[in-house]
Automatic annotation (TrEMBL):
GO biological process annotation, one example: L-histidine biosynthetic process
Catalytic activity: L-histidinol + 2 NAD(+) + H2O = L-histidine + 2 NADH + 3 H(+)
Name of the featured protein: histidinol dehydrogenase
UniProt superkingdom: Bacteria
Gene Ontology terms for molecular function: histidinol dehydrogenase activity; metal ion binding; NAD binding
Pfam family name, one: Histidinol_dh
Protein's organism: Lactiplantibacillus plantarum
Broad enzyme group: oxidoreductase
Keyword NAD found: yes
Amino acid sequence: MSALPAKIAGVNEVIMVTPPQVDGINPAVLAAAKIAGVDAIYQVGGAQAIAALAYGTESIPAVDKIIGPGNIFVATAKKQVFGRVAIDMVAGPSEIGILADDSADPRQLAADLLSQAEHDRRARPILITDSADLAQAVSDNVTSQLKVLPREAIATDAVNEKGFIAVVAKVEEMFDLMNTVAPEHLEVQLKNPTQYLNLIKNAGSVFLGRYASEPLGDYVAGPNHILPTSGTARFSSPLGVYDFVKRTSFIQYTKDALAKEAPAITTLARVEGLEGHARAIESRFDTYYD
């Protein structure tokens, strides 16, 4: 998710950090890094990995930009080093918001909510519906499905502490409320989900219909899955090639072209009290005085 857009953008060197395990790095992670074109891998994770990438160590070079989600400690560390290095966004913990009507399957909705709840105790599973019966059925299914999850304790904490189900009067209110939440992942499980695209304002990634379950986006769907969280989808976008591209302005004027603009420039400069600015322009012409 991080390396491929960087490589497409032309980044010369991509460094990956991954938490050390007892028996080394997971072979699947190594294989994925090789396929994605990662140039170097360091066995370090957490906030200390962010510090190492930002400031450099004897063995880890400092980088220009740090990309990728993490737990609350990683997110906080990225905030702390922003300015010394660039960051993509403050991503995490995971969120899922589901909009559903009575055409949706409560068993599937519960499973999708728990797919994100199992990530982190601070994960945020949310359902908004216009059907009280559906809301109750989903709640019952969440309770029963939690019991069979290997990460039951984590998912239970997320559901109890961060999750909620809201019942509203009509579909438009569902979208209004969810746009306020601005979730990382938004599932639209309505009878005709594409009918409401114009009502979606704030979401990191949108999944339409019952067969677009959120884990589809985690693994194979295609759009990048490093997404804005914590309401930042109001002003942020998913990671993309554009996050690895910067722009520079180039300006060149002839003497005649500058002469046409000089009166405006010198007038504005003096209005601001910046005499040096005005004189810099006048130095190109006979109006400059020592």
